[in-house]
Every structure is written in C-alpha cells, then in structure tokens.
Design goal:
The protein is α+β, with helices and mostly antiparallel strands and about 120 residues long. The protein has two helices and three strands; from the N terminus they run H-H-E-E-E.
Length: about 120
C-alpha cells in the first residue's frame, strides 16, 4: 500500500461531478423555455416584415400574432399578454414576460424575457 494517496477518490469524484450534473440538468429543463422564447421572438420579427408598408392596427396586429402563435404552437405568453402601444414612429409591440421551469421539488428556475419591435405607421 502506498503511504500517500494519488489521484481522485470516489467521494472526490462525487463532489466534482454533482455540480456539473445539476447545471446540465438545469440546462435540459430550460431548453424548452428558451425554444418557446425563440418562437415568440420570431413572431415579432415576422410582424415587422408583414407590416413594413404600414396599415397596422392593434386588431390586425393581434390577429397576426394569434395566427403565428397557433402555427408555432405557443401557449405562453398568450396574445393578450403582448402589449401594443402607439409611439411617434408607429406601433410598438412588446412581449415582456417571465417563464418558469421546475428543477427539483419546489425549486424552479425563473427566466425573464423582453422583446420589443416597432411597426411602421398605420392608423
């Protein structure tokens, strides 16, 4: 037997690998949340292309968002959670929301998302 231990013991490996496993598991749990945000972001960017020439109204914007959300199967946020307001350049469409992903038991990961686009002119 050697008088001095060399290398990492089994307990040492556990101490080293458990934090990595938790971070990887959290990433796996957060992946669907970020994929959902990417769908919302793509919808808002599509609105900019759709209303490039103007003619946007809050009702037509909500209708377009609803159609995109139905096609992309976005359940959260809902169309009513999207804020549409008037500014000097046109319509400002903002999707600001929090989303959660369960981790362990009563521990959840909460992520804040905020995406804003401005549509040209319109009534």
């Amino acid at each position: 037997m050697r008088a001095r231990q060399r290398g990492v013991t089994a307990i040492g490996w556990l101490v080293l690998l458990i934090p990595f496993a938790i971070v990887i598991y959290a990433g796996i749990r957060l992946t669907p949340v970020y994929l959902n945000y990417m769908k919302v972001s793509r919808t808002l960017n599509a609105l900019v292309d759709e209303y490039r020439g103007g003619g946007a109204t809050p009702a037509s914007i909500r209708d377009s968002i609803s159609k995109h959300f139905m096609i992309d199967e976005v359940d959260y946020p809902t169309v009513n959670d999207i804020q549409i307001s008037r500014d000097r350049r046109g319509w400002e469409v903002e999707a600001a929301y929090y989303d959660q992903a369960p981790l362990f038991g009563h521990i959840t990961l909460q992520v804040a998302f905020d995406k804003t686009v401005t549509l040209n002119g319109g009534g």
